[in-house]
Amino acid sequence: MESLIKSQHAQQLAGHSSRDGKTPRTTEMVPATSTGGLTMSSDESMMLKLIQQTHSPDAREVQVRGLLSLVEDILDRATLDSDDSNASMLPLPTEDKLMQSSMMSVLDSVSYAIDRVACEIAYKSLTGSDAHEITMSVFEHLSSFHWHGKLVLTLAAFALNYGEFWLLVQFHSKNQLAKSLAMLKLVPVQNRVTLESVSHGLNDLIREMKSVTACVVELSELPDRYITLEDPHLSRIISTIPIAVYWTIRSIVACISQINMITAMGHEMMNTQMDSWETSMLANKLKNIHDHLAETLRLCYRHIEKQRSSESLKMLHSLFDTTHIDNMKILTALVHPKNHTTPLQDGSTKRKVHLDVLRRKTVLLLISDLNILEDELSIFEQIYTESRRNLQGIDGKSHMPYEVVWVPIVDPIEDYERYPSLQNKFEALREPMPWYTVDSPKLIERHVVEFMRERWHFMNKPILVVLDPQGNEASLNALHMIWIWGTEAFPFTRAREEELWRRETLTLNLIVDGIDSVIFNWINPENYIFLYGGDDLDWIRRFTMAAKATAKDSNVKLEMAYVGKRNHSHREHIRRIGEAVRAENLSHSWAEPALMWFFWARLESMLYSKIQLGKADDHDEVMQGIKKILSYDKLGGWALLSKGPEIVMITHGAIERTLTVYDRTWKTHVPTKGYTKAMYDHHHDEILRETGKPCSHFDFHITARSGRIPEKMNCFDCHRPMEKYMSFACCHDDKLFDQDENYNF
């Protein structure tokens, strides 16, 4: 930091000494009106130029931090009463022998300068010199020191004077030497009114002097590599340090002058109280300067953190692009333990463990914020637990080829410290998890979160990143593979995904696999099965009653299941519909909301999986079927009809009309065509001709970036390119369904 100020100083002097007499191109160090929030008068701007002309630091680097601690200790203990509770409880900064040795080394090099400044201020204040003149004299004497050095040395000179004054006050009644010395120096030890006036009059000013000095020293310690002239805003606000040093030294001069005035006049001051106007004015001045410097520090630290985060981010990208013999470097970079030697919690034992438990294993990073759905966690836990059970060896231990680690993200992380509710939520989410969890969101550093957003497209919704035993990225999001095939998708690579899809066709088995054994047991060649969804209970009643009537009249066995609706914001409304379906015995319906969520999550996962594999707009049979279900669900009621595993048709709510007109239309064709063929022909040839085919409609949540939203998509009916719209949806789970809103643009 000091090099930055010195560089600015050199540019300033170069500008002043421009030989052609023209205005120098170099930007003025401090504007005449305001500098980064610190207002300055034109007189102060001129004064700043004079200060800069005295500044000629050499190569010496004085370690002032320890000296400042010693000075602060003296000033904190310099009080009216020696047994003052606050002062007596203060720790001694030089009790450590190594610290004492270091302090003596510093004092050996600067004691002459401190004494000289103390004498200079004392002498000139007694001879009636102007405060500004004395302050500039101090700058001249300390010209070879950096700005923070000037300030700390001058404050040390004040501590010599002020500390001695109060030491004599505190011990004059206990020590004859102190009593005689106080008399010789004319310290008014018997006049408590005067002493209280000194103490109360200077306390506020001394506190601000210490605060400003601490800020200047802290600014000087900032790393030069991050605070550079290339950032004009930071350069401009940091350049106010010289004026801060000036006003602090001038305040020190005022304090020493007042102390010296008291001792010089001796008993003539017995009935006089200090004039507080000057000290009050200076205290207010320094408070404004301190507030500015504190804000400057905040901006600098934010800038440094941003730069360091950028460097760490580049290093993390580079680390993932490098080949490793195992996964430990990768895992350590993601879950930075710092002093946390056990950054994980074992979900089965609830014990803290080291990252070594993951060495050379395939690791599934379940990354989410703290708003992860309970349904999602419930289904994931079922799949995980079943997998462990299936892979249990004869020794009773699970021999899973992979481990799961929950990586909780709170961004910004400051919120986690600020709101206890987030801490409680984290603990509540972690408690039932049987897999490994990162011990605290605080272990995930800011640049790691940014890395996850950039490279893995994390946008708060859960993703499952798979790292192989060497730390390579096997999959940027294997959640959709888990939802479709469970752990059969191991090792969750693209090649495995393509292999699994080659075995699949659009059948009812694929649509409901792993969700509900009741529906799965229905699937045989003699059974007709309707899966249907929607949020209109009246439509559901008409549809189910008409379907049952047609099946009974046609003498076919028909099973039906209500699967709800994709939109999770209608959760409460859909739950009530499911209850009504079961209560009225309209059809089979899942009582567990998690199963309904899982049904739609699997369909979405199939869509995303196909998109990632580049199958978004070809004539893939599975893709076309999934598109239909998701699109018709958006419109309202819909139904899927199958005979055994074979899907006959997927259609929208107009199917209810087809079933309703059974008696007077397609009933006569059932004996010759069969139940499904007769229904299909009438629905497509008559009903759709009257009602028209609805427009295809898909919604991709913005967080689905991890699933690679396609740039374009064709209609599954006419195969023409579909138009894109921007949609804003109200997604709260409100019990009043009609309050939800959705706007398309």
From TrEMBL:
Span list, region Disordered: 1-39
InterPro entries: SEO_C (IPR027944), SEO_N (IPR027942), SEOA (IPR039299)
Stretches assigned to the Sieve element occlusion C-terminal domain: 496-732
Alphabetical GO biological process terms: phloem development
All residue ranges annotated as the Sieve element occlusion N-terminal domain in the record: 42-324
Polar residues bias locations: 1-15
Pfam entry (one): SEO_N
Protein name: Protein SIEVE ELEMENT OCCLUSION B-like
Originating organism: Brassica campestris
Lineage per the UniProt record: Eukaryota, Viridiplantae, Streptophyta, Embryophyta, Tracheophyta
